[in-house]
Every structure is written in C-alpha cells, then in structure tokens.
Design brief:
homotetramer, 141 residues, 5-stranded antiparallel β-sheet, two-stranded antiparallel ribbon, globular
C-alpha cells in the first residue's frame, strides 16, 4: 500500500454562496494528493506526460459527509491499496483535524498521446512491482 | 420523469494541458443542467435558498468515456427518474452530437441554514406530487 | 470596430461565500466573449492553435462596479476598437440588463509553440485589413 | 510596509491546453497571499466577515511576463506599501525561483453586508496605525 497526506488550505475562490467549499473542488484536491503520492515514490507525473503518456481519470466517486469552510486546513489522504493491473484505483479521505469530511475514489488507466490504452511506462511498472512485492505464498508442510 | 437538455460550449478556461476539458468541470456542468431542469418545472433554486433551504450534493459519481474538447458544443441531459423520497438522485449524460462522452449522477437532500436535514419546501413537494402522480394501482377483478 | 455580445448565466460554481460571482470568473467570461467575437468575423481560435499559433493574455485589467449574482443573465460585450498592430487590445463590458457591472480589457500578442513573438497568421492579418480598411485620407482641393 | 510570501504549487486543474497555468488563476493565488499577509499581522479575514464586513476586490490588474507550468513551485509576494485610506491597494509578484513571472495589484474597500462602503473594523484601523506609524514631521528649527 502507498499512502500520502497533503495539507490544503481552503481558498476563498473555492467557496460558494452556501458558505462552504464548492463540491467540485475536491476533485482538484484529490489530484494534488495523487501527484504528491506518486512523487513520494519517485514517480513524477510531469515526466510521465513528457514521456508521451497520460493517466486520465476514467471514473470518480465522492461522498460528502460534512462541509469544509474557507481557510480550513484540510488533510487529504491518497491511498493506492492494490497493485494496479489494467486500471488503477486510488482512494481518498479528507479530514479537518480528526473529523472525516469527504471520502472518494478515482480510477485511471494509461493512454498514449492518441488516446489509446497502453501499458504503463516501464519505470512505473518496475516501481509498482517493487512496492507491491508479494510475500511468497504459504508452503505446504 | 423530468428531463432537461442544456447546451454547454467548452471554455478555454475549462481545458487542461491534456488538451481536453478538465474532468472536474463536469460537476459544474451537471449543476447548470440541474438548475435548468428545476426551472423547467417552475422551481427556482435561487428562491429555494432565499426561503432558507439548501440542496447540497451528498454524493457524486462520474464515468468518463471520451474527452470533450475546447469549443465543443455539448448537450448535457439531466433526468429525475423517480419521485424523490428522503434523497433525490439526478442522472446526467453529456453528448457531443450523438456521441456519449460522460455519464454521472448526483444525490441530494434538503437541509436548513444550520445544516440540519429537513423536508423539502412545500411547493417542491407539491410539484413533485403533481409530476410523479401515480396511475392508480390495478384493481382486482 | 468589431463588437460582439454573448449571454452568460452565472453558475452556482462561480459564486463565492460573499454571495456574489467570484471576481476571478470574469476573466473566463471575457474569454467566452473574445472567442465568439473572433468567430463572428470567421476567425476560429481553435484553428489558430491548430496552425501553431497562440494568442495569450499579456495584460488584464478589470474594474468591478457592482456584483453579479447566481443565476443572473449577464451580457458580456467584447470590442476590438483599433486595428491590431504589435499588440491587440480588447475591451469588455458586463451588463445585467441596462446596469453596467464590470469593465475590463485584455492585451494579447501572437506567439508560436516555442513562445516566441510572431506575426499573426496571414488569414488573421487579411481579415483585420478588411475590417479596418481605412477610408482614403482627405484629398487636397 | 507589510510583505508576505507564500508558496503555490501549480495544480493540474490550473493548467490549460496552452500547456501553462491559466491566466485567470493568478487572481486566486493573489488572494491566497493576501489572506496570509493579513494573518501575519494578526488580522483574520474570516473573522472580518463574521463581524459583518467584506473586503471585495474593486480593481485588478495583472501583467504576464512568463508562463508558469504544472507542478512549478511559485513564490507569491503580497505587499501593502502604503497605509490604506479610503481604498487599499495591494501589490503582487509571482516568481519561479529568481525569475519574475507575473506582477499585479488589487484595490479593495470595506463594505457592510448590504454592500455600503464603511470604515474598516476598528481593530484593522488600529493595526494599520500601528504598522504604518509615521515618523514625526520635521520640526522647525
């Protein structure tokens, strides 16, 4: 499992007239946490694009439990729980202090510049193999 | 069932460096279609808020099938398929011409200014009863 | 002079907790009007980029006289008052009905994909010459 | 003079298809720096609003010298150079390392909840008097 935490301070631009953070902004915050999560295991998403790959969002789901407010310091947790196979699913939790505000997930796959599904860049596959190295299966006695 | 279509022209501000419409923007476009859907049945969301109610998004899910591009004219369909009970679920489809790009849904409930769950405003309930008037159940012979 | 009007309906996503349209959104609305203004004289900004040119914003200034509100129908006027030479300046006015809310301007220049200043695409220059054809200077008697 | 620096990491959501940070986002970044600048002198903009005041943007101007890119770490400097009288002008500079990318300014005034111009909250005036304490005028000999 890979897990990263980032801190987001809610900007005034991110509020709406309900007086809370607009629900659409969480997708950008998830992305900030996702970018950092990859950096933390030495994968630069910027470099991935320079190498001719994209990693678009194919699905997103979010549950809003409580609102975030202007100037709140939020903790966004991103978590890759399983070794990516064809699709990569990342889970997110957004907290203010110990209070869980929002949960969500995004699903991704690698494509090339023409939008065709492709295998991940080799250095991503190698890193994932390293991070999700399976313990050997139990041996019969 | 209530159904509304709106046209959205993709703004330059809504693109990202992948050269497509940023995936987070669909939530704002869903909202444009939702606002119009309520207007089409004479419910003003603006008035709902003035009356002391909010109708926040509790859940959202989106599937991205194909990207939308700058200056595309998109059709966003919003559909209320079932009479709202405690929660209201609205479904969305985004098309470019006949091509389906994105599907999604949002779930909502009414709250008051203190954030407590409340019954819908009476005129919303009355309108929903009118729009989802059930045909009488089949009579025994 | 070239002048275009577009209608913008203020989205919920575009409000902030002051209960008005967030001041940063006007830049995107100016752009919607600018894109349409060029289309109205048969210049597609989309095609300009496909041909290898960009027309970035070099300067922007905005004066906010009155706020715009959620669900307001705004008229955004874009106006090219003088034939562009090295730089192109476009002026904007945002109205709700007859009430002027905001005025602004943007300044642009053409660059190539490497970010170097370049002459405009020939079809843009030709169109500007056509649109800003000067009446002949007064003849001495 | 009051001056504050904040660091902004350019989000993917903030890029556009020109491959750079969208020009409209700088207004939100200026605001992040402005919020922090006030906090640094113990003025909470959040509290100002709770006390019934707003501090809207009346004018903004921006000059874009060079583009910012995805994942860039930017330094945004906000500077209040003169003691605010009727209007408050704040200047901004955005750097990547030592390279100046953007300069700008915003002008503000205090209003009440009905949008009427008002004097600043007393604690803001007191703090400004303290920070911009004038040296005594030169004495006649």
């Amino acid at each position: 499992m890979i897990q990263t935490k980032v801190t987001i301070n809610v900007r005034y631009a991110e509020t709406d007239q309900m007086g809370v953070a607009y629900h659409g902004n969480y997708l950008a915050w998830f992305e900030v946490a996702r970018t950092r999560m990859f950096k933390d295991v030495d994968i630069s998403y910027k470099k991935i694009e320079q190498d001719g790959y994209y990693f678009p969002v194919l699905e997103v789901s979010v549950k809003y439990h409580r609102p975030a407010l202007y100037d709140d310091d939020l903790t966004v947790v991103a978590r890759l729980e399983e070794k990516p196979v064809l699709r990569t699913r990342i889970n997110y939790e957004v907290y203010r202090g110990d209070t869980l505000l929002v949960t969500g997930s995004t699903t991704h796959a690698f494509i090339d510049r023409e939008g065709r599904p492709v295998r991940p860049p080799p250095y991503v596959t190698a890193k994932m193999n390293e991070l999700f190295r399976q313990s050997p299966p139990p041996q019969p006695q």
